[in-house]
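Hey, I'm writing a tutorial for new members on how sequence and structure tokens pair up, and I'd like a real worked example in the thread rather than a made-up one. If someone can provide the structure for the chain below, I'll link this post from the tutorial.
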Amino acid sequence: MSSSTERALGPWDESEADLSDGIERLDLGGLLVAATPGVDLQVQVDESSGRISLLTFATKQGSVQVQPYAAPRSGGMWADVRGQIAGSISASGGLVEEADGSFGTELRAQIKGSDGSLQPARFVGVEGPRWFLRGVFLGQAARPGAQADVLEGMFRSVVVVRGTEAMPMGSPIPLRLPDAPGAAQATAPAAPLSPFERGPEITEIR
């Protein structure tokens, strides 16, 4: 499991977060997300189930894709996932290396875009009590700087609501659209950098 040092500033488990701190959070089921000025929240929805399959925090210069998964109590899932991601990137003609980052061991990569050019990406993983949260930083957020700082802050502010039900290791923790009417609007889809399949629908929440 990720050490308490690595999660000292978040992301948080529901049992750790002070939800009476006055911060307004959007309830997405498995995640609670605090709004940040200048950062848009985009969700990709599986058409068959209506559930969110991918969550993205986006600025004009960068973004971070966020996905929560069920994990074993013993931890160690990020080490396995890193190997799978690195193998997939290398097989597709990209470049990837492990490095120490602000969330512990991460993958820094150059991934082929739709036009064949290499684009920067940074994969991070954080393990909490029976959950694993993966982040993929893209654009200017894939490199140190102001954009990375803003989106890292968003990633750290996330509260994971794992629930008590039994779930197979690696199963996505269910996310859903908020109940507030008119909270989401359609926007253009962006191709996710991930080996997992997702539905085609993208909505944006402001």
